[in-house]
Fold:
Amino acid sequence: MTIKDIAELCGVGTGTVSRALNNDPRVKKETRERILSVVKKHNFIPNSSARNLKLMDTNTVGLLCMGINNPFFQSMFHPMESELEKLGYSAFFMEVGVDEDEGEAALKLIHEKNIKGIIFLGGMMKDPDVVLRHVTVPYILCSVGIDMSSTPDCIAISVDDEKESEKAVSYLIKEGHERIAIIAGRKDDKAVGALRLSGYKKALEKHGIKYDPKLVFHMEDGIPDFSAENGYKTMKKVIKKCPDITAVFAISDVTALGAYKAIYEAGLRIPEDISVVGFDGIEYSKYLHPPLTTMVQPTDEMIHEATENIDLAIKGEGKAKMIYVGAKLVKRDSVKKERENGTKVKHTS
Amino acid sequence: MTIKDIAELCGVGTGTVSRALNNDPRVKKETRERILSVVKKHNFIPNSSARNLKLMDTNTVGLLCMGINNPFFQSMFHPMESELEKLGYSAFFMEVGVDEDEGEAALKLIHEKNIKGIIFLGGMMKDPDVVLRHVTVPYILCSVGIDMSSTPDCIAISVDDEKESEKAVSYLIKEGHERIAIIAGRKDDKAVGALRLSGYKKALEKHGIKYDPKLVFHMEDGIPDFSAENGYKTMKKVIKKCPDITAVFAISDVTALGAYKAIYEAGLRIPEDISVVGFDGIEYSKYLHPPLTTMVQPTDEMIHEATENIDLAIKGEGKAKMIYVGAKLVKRDSVKKERENGTKVKHTS
DNA sequence: TTGTACGCGTTATCAC
DNA sequence: GTGATAACGCGTACAA
Structure:
């Protein structure tokens, strides 16, 4: 079934069919109706390859997601797509695994799909300059981890990981905790992991607590990072090596979920024995028991900034900048007050 | 950048470039290398619209996912894609929301993308005959809910929802529970929800326990079904209206997650006060506290059957059949033994 | 208002 | 081995 078949069936030219299909006002109402009814009857749908080939001007924005194991990013796909559509774009979704090359994926997107712009979502980008060197269309880095030592000239949207981590840990300290462990990213994580660890250190420093490297536990290498399993295994180590801690800061909610399990298995209670603070604010965090206190990232705002800015950039009005969105600590029940009214609480345990 | 530009740059014809790009053995090694180096240098990638238009024989299988809010299905996307690739297909991913029409989506897939076959994954299909009437390529229904009253002539893969539910509830009964509530699907759910509810009834019947309609709680209408929120709200009703129950069967793990929260908020314990059994076996179920006893569906097997059978069907060897895969009850710590060695346990509470 | 003809970038069929 | 050239299905400028 092609547009030609439809044309013959209706006794009109292909052009008329095409126009009818694309709501061109210049086609007589009667003809349009006849054509559309035949189209309907035969379930005809125009071939998109031919269409795109001809148009070459698809208002398509590529949505390139990297490392999707995290519900935090998963929850952003759909809203991102809707926002894009509101701005008159259609989104093309593409997912790249941890072991694949984002740069190549981006190039494929650009050349194969005639993409107008790209939103990179999540994941970790090693060598951003190398990856982005050949990206010839405007792009946005939305919550992607970048090695801090390199400073690519681009539009990036993110929470201030260092600052917000500092706030999260400071909260723990204000509640009276001093022996606070951190489940940090992998040792070689120079992006998000490093930033959040740095925030942890700063909070300690600012409150006059000595930084103890023994309290820093990096996620394991063999298992996906930021996963529940990694949080679980790492937390087991924490408990074994540092039984004297009163709190732990997990740099992602999913990691905290794993940590919960390790804590319970050790026969400990949350928050009575160990307080837990997470990061991200995934939907399920409030369903944990006890509900998790966590630094929630403003996904709506991030989505808004990302779509707004890719639109601007496509229109040629984009300027390289770093857009920081503010996170918010949502206090639930996973943190115990060790200190009441400025004085330390005595515990019998 | 087109194949023509490359051809000019290399001083050869477009055909040769095309052949070099597609590993046609008939091109001289020397020429190929010259061409490929130019291609590399200019980061040229062939336009896929043109390619597909010409080929019209893309070995592509459409992966049509319906209602993706459930981690159970989310975990199946990627493996499905890999399996398909092993069989020589490339997968085209498409997602349809709850309010969209799967039939239209399928037709789009078929005509726009020249899909060879479709795997429908998850979701609920109202009027399967209507939806599938115009699907002209082979297809598989993988874990999609179908109204039992209609019997479409197709290849479907699924767990035997009724039987496995019966097993799950029977387990509860064997452990000594008699007042067992069920968080069932929506009232109008004639597919999965109805089947699992039916299994619940059968288990009761088989063990001589009178079926009490008051113990059946359907999920609410305003909220997405099978969601944590719906599980939470529904469980609150259960606790309020039937404080005498000792166990609850949640027809999905995510629903059970919501139920956990409601139980804890009521000041009750799991499993001491209320035992919980889930269904699906999502990854996070083992991280709940206590780890959830649940009927886990064999996703790997389902994926294998789905891909294997779509391959067969595309090759013309497919026969309409219902493929049941067996689920397995994974016993963790969310169920309390009410009966020990055949005698009822006395409780002071 | 409608029909005709051309070209989008690619692959495949010919000749050479 | 290689180069011209004809399709693939569609949108649109141009002519009618």
In short: Chain B has a mean pLDDT of 90. The first helix of chain B runs from residue 3 to 10.
